[in-house]
Design goal:
Blueprint: H1 25-28, H2 33-39, E1 54-57, E2 66-67, H3 92-105, E3 109-114, H4 124-137, E4 142-147, H5 152-161, E5 166-170, H6 176-179, E6 185-188, E7 191-194, H7 195-215, E8 219-226, H8 235-244, E9 249-254, H9 264-268, H10 275-284, E10 302-303, H11 315-319, H12 325-353, E11 366-370, E12 387-394, E13 397-405, H13 420-429, E14 435-437, H14 443-451, E15 455-457, H15 465-478, H16 487-490
Parallel strand pairs: 1-3, 3-4, 4-5, 5-8, 8-9, 11-14, 14-15
Antiparallel strand pairs: 1-10, 2-6, 6-7, 11-12, 12-13
Helix pairs in contact: 3-4, 3-12, 5-7, 12-15
């Protein structure tokens, strides 16, 4: 059996069905070329693109028209942001200036999103003024918005007029009984409406908005916050309904609820899901395109997903910058062309590296963690990784299943000094993984990983991640390592 690198792998047991592993290049192969073109450099809509392209958010939208039980209004909109993080509010003019500055300094930045700190469509004047200016001055940047959906129907025309090609609606339920446990109230037609009625109106508006956007050719992603015991069993039904109505992608995100965030759920002790529960739910969402690489960004995030370069772009610094955007646009076009050429090379390299191997169906899959600084390569020192990409390698191929955040424990550039408890936390974050691929690793963490049943591997430095994971899986099979249960489970 040929061991392939692919998106929609069918795992040996349970797991992901066709089309449910994020939108990698292979997964997009069935889409019309025009759609592939619209998502190929969007880091959220294309799993492959997130290795290469960056996004940025501008926090121009302070107000909100609903209340979610996982949100404290002191902080950013938790529909697309990590709770407990506050963004600096910008005027539309400041937001435009910041966008041009970032686009000039980080040419791989391809998308500008508005995702808070409140709801962008509850602040239409500020949101659309930002989009209006940007669509004129920076037509090479994709525009994206994330909303709770209450006001979508009344803004569809304006979204289309400003060329907003990608819209995210957070839909946590299609049943008002479930909704009443998530939303205590909405503000609708100058009145505060509570309970089941509020959820009913919100759901109706979300569904109508979704249909209207799809009818106008806008790509719609649906976000859902997984709240164990509240909507977890209901979300496969949400996935089915939104797919039927034409949503392009479903992003099921874990609830983050801590008492110190002061949210209703946090204070009431509502727990978030475990990684295993989240993966199982994503897999249970049938054949919907599933996003698994979301990093729950902040409303002023800048950089590759998982990276936060916001501090480099404070307004004080931006005001001191001279920006020649026409020149920047030329440079951006050249760099995007180079990225696309490198992606093509990477695909060819992957195909060449995944030579046929006899891994019989039914052989157990393996979770492989990868330290990558971007470009889809194994190119990061173990001690410098703040997060690891996790792939499941099995007889049918390799699929991306998520990421694990960890504390960076190595502060030096050439040594992996004192491992301390930070290394222990890293090892805990990698629980369940049997291999970690990185460009380099020190002797001390090497030993600690081995002792924990995780095999460090620096042999595949600078190789494409999926191809490296496939090669390691094949090596494990050939060495007989897949005949036994994982070492970590034995220990
Ligand atoms: Fe931003 Fe959202 Fe647009 Fe992406 S984020 S508005 S679709 S450009 Fe992306 Fe961040 Fe997840 Fe959002 S990783 S939180 S899904
Ligand atoms: Fe908070 Fe966003 Fe919900 Fe509004 S939509 S209450 S800002 S999480």
């Amino acid at each position: 059996m040929e061991l392939k690198v692919l998106g929609p792998a069918k795992p040996a047991a349970g797991g992901c069905a066709k089309g449910s592993c994020g939108s990698t290049a292979d997964q997009m192969a069935h889409l019309p070329e025009a759609i592939r073109d619209r998502v190929k450099n969007h880091p959220c809509y294309s799993e492959e693109a997130h290795h290469h392209y960056a996004r940025m958010h501008v926090a121009v939208a302070p107000a909100c028209n609903i209340q979610c039980n996982y949100c404290n209004r002191k902080y950013d909109c938790a529909n697309e942001s990590r709770p407990g993080v506050v963004s600096e509010l910008l005027t539309p003019d400041q937001a435009v200036r910041k966008t041009l500055a970032v686009a000039a300094a980080i040419p791989q930045m391809s998308v500008l999103g508005i995702a808070g700190p409140g709801d962008p469509l509850a602040n239409p004047a500020r949101t659309f003024e930002t989009f209006r200016q940007l669509s004129e001055t920076a037509p090479d940047i994709k525009l994206c918005v994330s909303t709770n959906g209450l006001s979508v129907p009344e803004h569809v025309d304006e979204l289309v007029r400003h060329n907003i090609d990608h819209v995210t609606i957070t839909i946590n339920c299609v049943d008002p009984e479930v909704g009443a446990r998530i939303y205590p109230w909405i503000f609708w037609k100058n009145r505060r409406i509570r309970g089941r009625k509020a959820a009913e109106i919100l759901i109706e508006q979300q569904q109508r908005g979704l249909e209207m956007l799809v009818a106008r050719g806008v790509l719609v992603k649906v976000n859902s916050v997984m709240i164990p015991g509240v909507n977890d069993e209901h979300l496969p039904e949400v996935s089915r309904v939104v797919k039927e109505k034409g949503a392009f992608l479903h992003n099921v995100m874990p609830l983050i609820a801590e008492a110190e965030h002061g949210t209703y759920y946090g204070v009431m002790g509502q727990r978030g899901p475990t990684q295993a529960e989240l993966t199982a739910l994503q897999d249970a969402c049938g054949d919907m395109n599933m996003m698994r690489h979301c990093r729950q960004c902040r409303a002023d995030a800048v950089g590759l997903l998982g990276e936060d370069r916001g501090q480099e772009f404070t307004m004080a610094r931006i005001d001191a910058m001279a920006i020649d955007y026409a020149a920047a646009m030329e440079r951006r076009a050249a760099i995007h062309a180079a990225i696309e050429a490198a992606r093509e090379d990477g695909r060819a390299q992957q195909a060449a590296m995944t030579a046929p191997a006899a891994v019989p169906a039914g052989t157990r899959p393996v979770l492989i963690a990868v330290a990558s600084a971007g470009q889809g390569l194994v190119n990061q020192h173990f001690g410098h990784a703040r997060e690891f990409l996790v792939y499941e390698a099995g007889p049918a191929g390799v699929r991306f299943v998520g990421h694990r955040k960890t504390d960076q424990y190595c502060v030096g550039s050439s040594t992996c000094g004192d491992a301390g408890t930070a290394l222990e936390r890293t090892i805990r974050a990698l629980a369940g993984c049997e291999v970690v691929l990185c460009s380099k690793i020190g002797i001390e963490p090497w030993g600690a990983l081995e002792a924990a049943g995780i095999q460090p591997n620096g042999e595949h430095a600078m190789e494409p991640v999926e191809a490296a994971a496939a090669a390691v899986y094949r090596e494990m099979f050939e060495a007989g390592a897949l005949d036994a249960a994982p070492a970590a489970q034995i220990a």
